[in-house]
Amino acid sequence: MNFELLIPITLFACIAYSIKAVVDARVRKQLVSSNGAPDLVRSILEGDEVNRRLSSLRWGITLVALSIGFAIVEAAGWREITPGVIAVLVGAVGIGNLGSFAAARKLG
Q1: CB of 99 closer than 8 Å to CB of 65
Q2: Could you tell me the CA-to-CA distances from 71 to 1, 9, 16, 75, 92 in Å, in that order?
Q3: What's the pTM?
Q4: φ/ψ of residue 37, rounded to 5
Q5: DSSP-assigned letter for residue 6
């Protein structure tokens, strides 16, 4: 594994996430301080909260499905990366995303 390549990629991802977090916080601050309609501000903040909860649900379901895919690969005794192994893992991620979509529709 080339860790020399992984460090700049991780640094870039961290910087991008930090910029996004600062911009989101600044937009919320300006929205609240602009004396906009309280109902509009409340609905936007509630929408953000719902999106955060649904995002957690999506990641949770997808990661559980991916772990099931890895368990299938381990149980089958596959030790090399083959198209079959990749198909099982990608299929698990797809099933996880579809499951999270179905759960979000039932909650929403």
Answers
A1: yes
A2: 23, 29, 33, 6, 11
A3: 0.64
A4: -65, 130
A5: H
Q: Which residues of the chain have pLDDT under 50?
A: none
Write the single-letter amino acid at 26: R
CB of 42 closer than 8 Å to CB of 28: no
Measured CA angle at 59 (ends 57, 62), to 5 deg: 105
Return d(Cα 36, Cα 29) in angstroms, integer. Answer: 11
User: What does the block give as tokens for 92?
Assistant: 């698990």
Q: Angle at which helices 38-76 and 3-33 pack, to 10 degrees?
A: 160
**Which pLDDT tens digit goes with each residue over 46-64?**
887 888 888 888 889 999 9
Residue 82 three-state SS: coil
Radius of gyration of the chain (CA): 20
Q: Which long-range contacts does 98-102 make (Cβ < 8 Å, 24+ apart)?
A: 99/61, 99/65, 100/57, 100/58, 100/60, 100/61, 100/62
Cβ within 8 Å of residue 103, ≥6 positions away: 57, 61
